[in-house]
Amino acid sequence: MNLLPTISPPASPTAWSAPFVAHQRASHWQGSGCPFDRSILRRLERSGPPNSRTAFSLLEVMVAIAIFFSAAFAILTLVSGALRNARMLQRPQVDAGAVASALSITNKIVEGTDSGDLGDLLGDTYRGYKWESRSIEVESNKLFQVDFTIYSPARGNPVFSKISTRLFRPESPPGSLDGGGMGIH
Predict the structure, then answer these.
(1) Secondary structure of residue 159 in the 3-state scheme
(2) Residue 13 burial by CB count (10 A; 0-12/13-18/19+): exposed, middle or buried?
(3) How many CB atoms within 10 Å of residue 142?
(4) What is the spatial distance between Cα 120 and Cα 127, in angstroms, rounded to a whole number?
(5) Rounded CA gap, 84 and 75, in Å?
(6) Which residues contact 152 (CB under 8 A, 6 or more apart)?
């Protein structure tokens, strides 16, 4: 039982009107056994023909562009951070403790300063890093404080790592506290 009046289709598809389209949709729903509500028909009649074109307003386009660029800049920030971290991982991690262990093997410490290229001590991977040590006698019983500093190969040679240790070397020549002169290590 059809509750809607029959409307014949127009001659051409471009001439379809909103009431005809709404009637066709409502007839389909009514014939399929679904409960039919007249408010649905009214909403369908207001919706217009299926091939009508709608456009975005300028405000909607501007909001969409703002969201797109916000997302793009967030992604670029993440990518640049990841590249910076990857670059840092490619550089060798240098600790002044490695220099301290390599240079403290000696049985004798002479007060003074010494320096050199880290590549000469630890291998070519560390070429360009500079190290410096400064030894001073802190007790008259041949107890020395040795400060090791590593300088980065970057512009201005900033301090990369620093460590200070005390070493007891009884075979060392007399230092400044034992009446000896300041020697160069």
Answers:
(1) strand
(2) exposed
(3) 19
(4) 8
(5) 14
(6) 129, 158, 159, 160
Structure tokens at 156: 């201005």
Which residues on neighbouring strands pair with residue 146, listed in sequence order?
135, 165
pLDDT in tens, 7-47: 565 565 555 555 555 556 555 555 555 555 666 666 666 66
Instruction: Write down the pLDDT at residue 24.
Output: 61
Polymer length of the chain? 185
pTM over 0.70: no
Fold of 96-168: Pantoate--beta-alanine Ligase; Chain: A,domain 2 (3.30.1300)
What is the distance between the alpha carbons of residues 62 and 68, in angstroms, rounded to a whole number? Answer: 10
Buried b (16+ CB within 10 A) or exposed e, 25-58: bbbeebeeeeeeeeeebeebbeeeeeeeeeeeee
* Residues in CB range of 173: below 8 A, 6 or more apart: 108, 110, 180, 183
Contact at 8 Å (CB) between 130 and 107? Answer: no
Q: How far apart are CA 57 and CA 97, in angstroms?
A: 65
